[in-house]
Every structure is written in structure tokens, then in C-alpha cells.
Amino acid sequence: MARPEKNGPRLDIQASVEEGNWQDEAALEAFSTRILEHAAGYLATREGQPFGPAPIEVSLVFTDDASIREINSEWRAQDKPTNVLSFPAFPLEPGGKPGPMLGDIVLARETIEREAADLGKPVEEHLTHLLVHGFLHLFGYDHMDAEEAEEMEGLETRILAELGISDPYAGQEPV
To answer: Which family does it belong to (predicted)?
Structure first.
């Protein structure tokens, strides 16, 4: 579903529920589209992220812990479930111009629910954070060292603040 954000690029978001106790696919796609269009608009208007006129395709896969554990084991050699994985279609440096296919974001329901409960936050709020987090990974942002983490977490925090969500990293050192 390609729609222009008021001040941002157009996204073509394809969402699918593969496994897990997720809400209906159309509702997830609408929720995710609103979040990711906002994040793309933020990157375009406040960060000067260059976008072309064509829609950018993003694939979202909503799954469960068992499935994401397999993916995490295969692609990252970590035999455990995780909350979100991002797979850029092409390497992109932060601030670089994305191509027509940005990449895939995979999210695991049980891990997200567990983390939200541990944080004392609504699942939708934590899901919003992880969608933004995964989206930034597709744009080349990372958190492998303190400098990268500070940049990426700062972007996440500013985007989330505009969505009415408090700083998920408050009181923590960069990851």
C-alpha cells in the first residue's frame, strides 16, 4: 500500500503474518504504515535523508519466537529468539539514498510481549519502538559501538517522541 506521508517519501509496505498470535494482517499493516511513514518523513525532513520520487518497498514479517530463532541462528549464528531482525536489500550508509527495495523487518510476538511486560509498557508502544529500530537498520544505522549506538538511539528517541512515546533508553548507557 503506497501512500505519501505529508512531508515525506512514499512507502510500499507489504506485511504478512507468518506465525504467532498477532492481530489481523490488515490492522498490522495500517499500524506499521503509520509508524514507518512517520519515521521516513522524519528522516527526510529533519535528517536530510535523500529519497527519490518512487515508492520504497519494505517487507514486514510478523512471526513467533520459534521462527525468529531459526532465522537468527541461520543469519546471525545466535541460536535464540530476538525481538526484531532487519535485512537490508542493499548496503546503505546512514544518510545514503535508498533504492526501490529497502529490505525486510521480522518481528517476534512472544519476545515483544515479554519485553513490554518487563518494561511495564503497552505492547503497541514497544512494537512501535521496534518498528522504528528495524527501519533505521535498513537505512544503515547500527549500534555496534558506542558512537553508532548514540547516533541511532538519538534518532529513535526523537522519532518516538514525535509519536508520543517516551525515550526507551532513558537511564541506560548506549547499547
So the answer is: Belongs to the endoribonuclease YbeY family.
